[in-house]
UniProtKB/TrEMBL annotation:
One of its GO terms (molecular function) is aminoacyl-tRNA deacylase activity. SUPFAM superfamilies: YbaK/ProRS associated domain. This is YbaK/aminoacyl-tRNA synthetase-associated domain-containing protein. Residues 65-171 form the YbaK/aminoacyl-tRNA synthetase-associated domain. InterPro entries: YbaK/aa-tRNA-synt-asso_dom_sf, YbaK/aa-tRNA-synth-assoc-dom. Gene3D superfamilies: YbaK/aminoacyl-tRNA synthetase-associated domain (3.90.960.10).
């Protein structure tokens, strides 16, 4: 099957690619409760050496610059306590940690979590972290522009492979809140 975005010749329904997903992502796809059938979540195989945004877009399609999103793990501090959360913004934007993310998480301060923490806590590879399969108790802030897209390319839990999902499916993930202006164009 051809993917609805990008230049991918072989997209497969994610439930048929569970063996290619990290454990937390495979479990989330297997138990998918979203507003669209799990079969509409698509897996595409990609070269992990071409995972960085600029090279990825050059290789797999320039339309992906406007239809792909990055999931970033952040640490929010409030009342002396630190909690982890995730933010999903377009790949050509950066997370507004000091504004929209801080307000959305009700935190005094928000900063990017260290790579090691993000990997350990999610069970995913750095560079492939995805909002599907995050710890259930984490808040997930989704940029409104991303949630409004018909199709969005996101990580699959590893640097090899990506998921293509309807934007509305992201807004219904556990702990998700759609936030206006979460992503700032760079």
């Amino acid at each position: 099957m051809r993917a609805p975005i990008g230049d991918f010749d072989n997209a497969v329904p994610a439930p048929d690619a569970l063996d290619r997903l990290t454990a937390p992502v495979a479990a989330a796809v297997r138990d998918w409760p979203g507003p669209v059938p799990a079969g509409q979540l698509l897996y595409v195989d990609t070269d992990p050496a071409k995972a960085d945004t600029a090279v990825f877009v050059e290789t797999y399609g320039k339309d992906l610059l406007g239809t792909s999103a990055n999931c970033v793990v952040v640490a929010a501090k409030r009342g002396g306590e630190r909690a982890l959360a995730a933010c999903l913004v377009g790949s050509s934007a950066r997370v507004d940690v000091n504004g929209a993310a801080r307000r959305g998480l009700g935190a005094r301060k928000v900063s990017f979590a260290p790579h090691e923490t993000a990997v350990w806590e999610t069970g995913m590879e750095y560079g492939g972290i995805t909002p599907i399969g995050l710890p259930a108790d984490w808040p997930l802030l989704v940029d409104a522009e991303v949630a409004a897209l018909p199709w969005v390319l996101i990580g699959s839990g590893s640097r090899r492979g990506k998921l293509i999902v309807p934007g509305k499916a992201l807004a219904s993930l556990p702990g998700a809140e759609v936030v206006e202006g979460l992503g700032q164009r760079v």
